[in-house]
Structures are given as C-alpha cells and as structure tokens.
C-alpha cells in the first residue's frame, strides 16, 4: 500500500481530496492557456487571404539560419564543458556547473546589454552579436542535457577501445559520440527553438537582418495594430516550433532506446598531467566566458565619460533618470517585485497541486502533461493571446494589473512541476502507512509523510517562479501598461533613447536585476539541498 502512493493508481491510504487536486490546475490551464490559443486561431483566420507569405517566410528563413548557427556554436563550446563536468571530479566542479547555469536564468535583455557593453565597440549591432549572445545564454542547455546522458555512459567501452589502440579522439568519435547523439540532437533542437523565438536579444543587439517571427509579431501588434496578421504569424511560428521539438524528441527517444546506459556512483579525478591540464583549461575557459559579460556590465554601471561614478545608481529613484519620464527605475523595480510575488504565489500553488495530482489520479498525469505546453509556446504568442482574450472589455484584467502575473505564472508552472514532482516521488511514503496504522486520518497521515517536504519545495518553487517573473520580457512587452513597466521593459525603453545617461541608468538597473535573480537562485538552491538532505 505504501508503494502505491505515488504510482498514480489511487492509493488506499491517500486522502479522498487528493484525487481532485487536478481540478484547479485544469481550470487554470483551460482559461489562461486554452482561451488565448483559441482566440489567436480565430483571429488568424481573418488574415489568411491577405497574409504576406513571402515576407514572413523570409524572416522565418533568416531566423532559422541564425538559430542553426547559434545552436552550432553552443554545441561547439558546450560539449567540451559537458565532457569535463560529467566525466571528472575536481576542485571547483560544483561552482563551475553553477556558473554555467547563470546565463540561462538571467533576463535576456540583461544579457544583451552586457554583450553590447563588452563587444559593442568591436562589432556593429547585427548577426554576430546576436549569435554571440544566443550562444552564451544556451550553454547551460547543452551542458545540462548532454552532460546528464554523458554521466551515465558505460566507461568500460571507452577503456576497451583505448586498450585496443584507439586514440582518445578516435575512442570519442567511435564509442562515446554515437551514444550521445540522441542527447545532442535533443539539446540542439531546444536551443534552436530558443534562438528562433528570441525577442529581447534581437531587439537590443539585432538589425533588419536578424529579425525573428517573435519580433515581427510584436511589430504587427504594437506599431501596426494589425492583430489578425500578428495572430497568423504566431500560428505559423507555433507550427514550426512544434515540428522542430517533435523531431528533437523523436531523435532523442530513438537513440536513447538503442543505447544501453549504466549509472556510475562516483566520478574519477584527473590523474595524468595531460588530463589535469585539459580539465582545468576547459573549466577555466567556461568560467571566463560566463563571467566576462557580467563583469563588463558591472563596470559599465559605475563608469561614466569622466571616470568612475555612482551617478547611475543614485539616479535610480529619479523620474528623470534616463529621461523616459513614464516611470522611475525604482518604481519599475517595485512593479517587478509585486508581479514576482504574485506570480510566485499563483505558480507555486498551481504547480504544487499539479505535481501532487500526479501521485493520486491518472487524470492528474494528463493535466501535468498539458501544463508543460507553455514551454513550447512563445512569449509573443502567449502575450498576444492573453491580450486579445483578457486585455480588453468586457474582460479587462490588464487594467487590474493581473494579466502580467497570470502570464508569468503560466510560464513558470512547468518549471514548478519539474522541481516539485521528482522531490515528491522521492519522498518515503512509509511514514503515511505508519501514521495510518497508528490511527491517523488519511489527510493527517498524508501530511505526516509529505508535509515537511511540501513546505520546502513550495518555497523553492515559489522562488523559482518569482525569478522567472523578474526576467520575463516577451509577454510583458504585450501586456504592460505604459505607466507601469517592469524592469526589463524599463531597460529596453532606456536603451531606445540616446545619451550616456540612459545607457548608464540601464546598466545600473540591469545589475539590480542580476543581483536579485542570483540571490533568488541561491535561495532556491539552498532549499533544494535542504530537501535532498531530509
């Protein structure tokens, strides 16, 4: 009976309310995901006859080329990093792994601003800067996905190949690489989709040759007010993204099934001098690549034309800072913090209920699967759908300041489920059985086993959702009111204005976002370690 708790088949000692835990997430998804997608599809039908296919497909082609090259560079840098981090135990390995993850969790607008400060004096805005930023952001995707598979490979096959005379490179090409092909293709597909649907990086670092369908949707919505054409573009992008993700998933499943894996308990330390040089050179290069743009951003926030200055930081509370005059940077920080708290509460509640429902009912598994859909849905499509559905009378949630937190919650729920579900499944359910045997009611027995874990993962999941909300740019660019911008939107507005003051205040504001995001991630990581220790 104890083993049944968590199998999804309805355990005998589970409280009766648990089998209905899927209802709130299902309603949340039906309203906030189903309605926007349906609205976008309806509006897209109005533009079928007048849709400019040649221009749109040209933009899609340019975005695909840019995404392919970005994915190629991310693979070229990420695979050696994955090799070192998943094959060897060495001093500083955990720190290197954590630092490589940082660019992926930072707001894309901040990354773009950092690259503009680091390489802007050498490269004009355009193709190369966009590819450099996309490669930087997506290193973590390659390292995490490929490294997870690499760490499980049977190293005895490589040892046998070396014993038969193969060089390290030949052993890698003939033995290791075929077993990693599925993970590499899957990671490449994910990176391709992220780069293909990029918005913040393209707006800050791009030019007319680096537009994406995402930026085209924003242009058609914000400048041209052509909602049917924007909806048609969003549907086209959704189809292309879905095809790429399905191809990546198919390649991953096929290769994984044909590749036997063996878990290893402990990674070896590099023993030979050549191994140590290789490991520390790759790890050191990875750390340098991650830190250089952030250090450049930090210096830019305290540097003016006349030398070092704190003027940009002191201007954060001024309405005239950067001369946007729509809102002060400090008010943008307050707006972002408010949205982050609301998003953390909503996404934490919905995501935890969705994860709990997987333990108790087969319908819950289907709901949790549907809740992952926003991962493949672009921010522009989501923002456009929410604006058309709930941003105008008769249902105007935009004027109530609820639409952005709801959009951010929808984006964060899949991540919350990804954090909570493995932890709940790893929790020892025998405590519930013991409590039931001692006379506890099902609800009390359930919380005796899962309550301590739920408290920790709920805080960690809420923190992760708040982190997502702080840096989200795409959906907020559709839904924010002009007088209440979020921090990423305020940074973008400052960058669109000329003058050193606007750029200096934007860098200071970006550093505030970096510090806030890193602190939240450290808090989530600490809670995660505490959960594992229990």
Mean pLDDT: 83
Distance between the termini: 22 Å
Shape: globular
Q: What structural class is derived from the secondary structure elements? A: mainly alpha
Helix segment count? Answer: 22
Helix content: over 70%
Order of helices and strands: HHHHHHHHHHHHEEHHHHEEHHHHHH
Largest sheet: 2 strands, antiparallel
Order of strands, main sheet, comes to: 1-2
How many beta-strand runs?
4
Strand content: under 5%
Task: Explain how this protein is built.
It is globular, with a radius of gyration of 24 Å. It is built from 22 helices and four strands. It is mostly helical. A hairpin with a 2-residue loop joins strand 1 (303-304) and strand 2.
Please describe the topology of this protein:
Blueprint: H1 23-45, H2 53-87, H3 93-105, H4 108-119, H5 127-137, H6 139-150, H7 155-163, H8 168-196, H9 200-205, H10 213-222, H11 227-257, H12 273-300, E1 303-304, E2 307-308, H13 311-314, H14 329-360, H15 362-371, H16 379-390, E3 391-392, E4 395-396, H17 403-426, H18 430-437, H19 442-471, H20 474-479, H21 487-495, H22 500-533
Antiparallel strand pairs: 1-2, 3-4
Helix pairs in contact: 1-11, 1-14, 1-15, 1-16, 2-5, 2-6, 2-8, 2-12, 3-6, 3-12, 4-5, 4-12, 4-22, 6-8, 7-8, 8-11, 10-11, 10-16, 11-16, 14-15, 14-17, 14-19, 17-19, 18-19, 19-22, 21-22
């Amino acid at each position: 009976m104890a083993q049944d708790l968590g199998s999804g088949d309805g355990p005998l000692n589970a409280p009766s309310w648990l089998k209905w835990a899927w209802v709130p997430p299902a309603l949340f998804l039906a309203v906030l995901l189903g309605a926007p997608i349906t609205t976008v599809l309806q509006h897209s039908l109005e533009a079928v006859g007048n849709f400019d296919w040649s221009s749109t497909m040209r933009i899609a082609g340019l975005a695909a080329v840019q995404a392919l090259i970005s994915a190629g560079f991310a693979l070229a840098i990420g695979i050696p990093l994955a090799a070192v981090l998943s094959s060897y135990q060495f001093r500083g390995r955990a720190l290197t792994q954590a630092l490589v993850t940082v660019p992926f969790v930072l707001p894309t607008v901040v990354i773009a601003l950092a690259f503009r400060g680091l390489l802007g004096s050498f490269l004009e805005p355009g193709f190369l800067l966009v590819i450099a930023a996309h490669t930087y952001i997506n290193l973590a995707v390659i390292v995490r996905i490929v490294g997870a598979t690499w760490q499980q490979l049977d190293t005895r096959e490589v040892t046998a190949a070396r014993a038969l005379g193969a060089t390290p490179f030949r052993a890698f090409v003939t033995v290791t690489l075929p077993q990693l092909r599925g993970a590499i293709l899957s990671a490449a597909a994910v990176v391709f989709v992220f780069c293909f649907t990029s918005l913040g990086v393209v707006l800050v670092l791009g030019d007319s040759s680096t537009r994406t369908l995402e930026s085209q949707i924003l242009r058609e919505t914000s400048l041209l007010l052509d909602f049917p054409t924007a909806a048609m573009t969003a549907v086209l992008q959704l189809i292309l993204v879905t095809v790429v993700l399905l191809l990546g998933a198919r390649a991953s499943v096929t290769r994984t099934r044909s590749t036997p894996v063996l878990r290893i308990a402990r990674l070896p330390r590099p023993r030979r001098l050549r191994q140590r040089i290789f490991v520390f050179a790759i790890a050191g290069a990875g750390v340098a690549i991650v830190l250089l743009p952030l250090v450049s951003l930090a210096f830019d926030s305290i540097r003016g034309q006349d030398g070092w200055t704190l003027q940009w930081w002191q201007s954060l509370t001024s309405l005239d800072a950067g001369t946007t005059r729509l809102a002060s940077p400090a008010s943008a920080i307050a707006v972002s913090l408010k949205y982050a708290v609301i998003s953390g509460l909503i996404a934490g509640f919905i995501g935890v209920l969705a994860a709990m429902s997987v333990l108790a009912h087969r319908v819950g598994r289907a709901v949790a699967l549907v809740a992952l859909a926003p991962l493949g849905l672009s921010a522009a499509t989501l923002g456009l759908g929410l604006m058309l559905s709930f941003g105008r009378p008769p249902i105007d949630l935009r004027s109530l300041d609820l639409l952005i937190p709801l959009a951010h919650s929808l984006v964060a729920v899949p991540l919350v489920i990804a954090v909570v579900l493995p932890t709940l499944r790893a929790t020892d359910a025998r405590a519930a059985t013991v409590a039931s045997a001692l006379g506890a009611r099902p609800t009390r027995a359930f919380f005796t086993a899962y309550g301590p874990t739920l408290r920790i993962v709920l805080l960690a999941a809420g923190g992760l959702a708040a982190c997502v909300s702080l840096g989200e740019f795409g959906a907020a660019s559709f839904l924010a009111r002009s007088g209440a911008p979020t921090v990423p939107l305020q940074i973008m507005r400052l960058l669109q204005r000329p003058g050193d003051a606007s750029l200096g205040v934007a860098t200071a504001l970006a550093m505030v976002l970096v510090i806030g995001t890193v602190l939240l991630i450290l808090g989530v990581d600490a809670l995660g370690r505490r959960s594992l220790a229990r």
